Amino acid sequence: MKRLLALLVCAFPLSVFAADATPTELDPVAAKRAVELSSQLRCLVCQNQTIAESNAELAVDLRRQVSEQIKAGKTDREIVDYMVDRYGAFVLYKPPFNMTTLLLWLGPGLAVVLGVIFYVRTVRARNRVIVDRPLTDAERAEAERLLAQVSKKQG
Question: Is 133 a member of any domain?
């Protein structure tokens, strides 16, 4: 029991230093955070890639900024907020749902609904135009002549 107590007394000062530990480039937790954050931010040059995917100079710089802020002890929310403050909401790969992004989020669904409405109206309009009406005498005579020609060629 005395040995355990002595070990705890010796280990206690080490726990104080552990509280001030800062992430390094080799820290797997910090590296994972950097990758996750980089996957949430859009490359402002490529626009269809995250900064994690892009090799553009700006994306490399943004990844470096994310890593530096992680080393500085910032939270994920603070890092994302910093990027939004600096580059605008466009830097977010998945922008939030608000009044400025309303069309962005609802646009595809609205386009599908409008497409279905247009299709249904077009089909109904065509069906109204195609109405069964009796043939006129001239049309009936022409149809009989054409049928007689087909019959002669087949027989």
Answer: yes
Instruction: Report if pTM > 0.70.
Output: no
Number of helical (H) and strand (E) elements in the chain, helices listed first? 6, 0
Of 74, 96, 118, the position where a domain reaches its end is 96
CATH number assigned to the domain comprising residue 46 = 1.10.8.640
Phi and psi at 92, nearest 5°, equal -75, 130
Q: Does the residue 119 lie in any domain? A: yes
- Using left for φ > 0, alpha for ψ between -120 and 50, and beta otherwise, residue 73 falls in left
> Where does residue 89 rank: exposed (0-12), middle (13-18), buried (19+ CB within 10 A)?
middle
Phi and psi at residue 35, to the nearest 5°: -65, -45
Q: Could you list the pLDDT tens digit for every one of the 155 residues in the chain?
A: 666 555 555 555 544 444 444 445 557 888 888 899 888 898 888 868 889 888 899 889 999 999 999 999 999 999 999 998 998 888 888 878 888 778 878 889 999 999 999 999 999 888 877 767 788 999 999 999 999 998 888 86
Distance CA 41, CA 60 (A): 12
Residues 70 and 116 in one domain: no
Q: Which domain holds residue 150?
A: 100-154
